[in-house]
Amino acid sequence: MVYLVDTNVLIHLSDRRDPHHPIVRAALRKLRRDGHQLQISPQNCAEFWNVATRPAEHNGLGLTPVDADRALKLIERLFPVLSDNPSVYSEWRRLVVDFEVSGVQIHDTRLVAMMKTNGITHILTFNRSDFARYAQIGIVAADPATV
Asked: What's residue 143's pLDDT?
């Protein structure tokens, strides 16, 4: 099975001082050991860059662009990046209307659109509630602490 890895998991993975770091590492090891594939989307990369380069006092990692580049290159080596294609937009557009999505939740909906167009049903995330509405269309949100 393929899992999309949510950005919050990537953030916790990239900061060894983060209290969730060991949980993420254990979850990723277990999923790989069990034969699952782990992938990310271009959106995850953009979101990671946003948080990585945001100042720590504004809930970011405070990395320089050079350090963020180094961290993202490592992430890209660990997780294949799915290709963006025009059908993702069409699916996202349908989902935001069908589920009446508004505000910042549109970003999670785009991840769901990427999943649907690539036949992915599982997402590894600390924010399971953000994806709960999509259970009815076959999206399963798995918490790294419980995989």
From this structure: 98
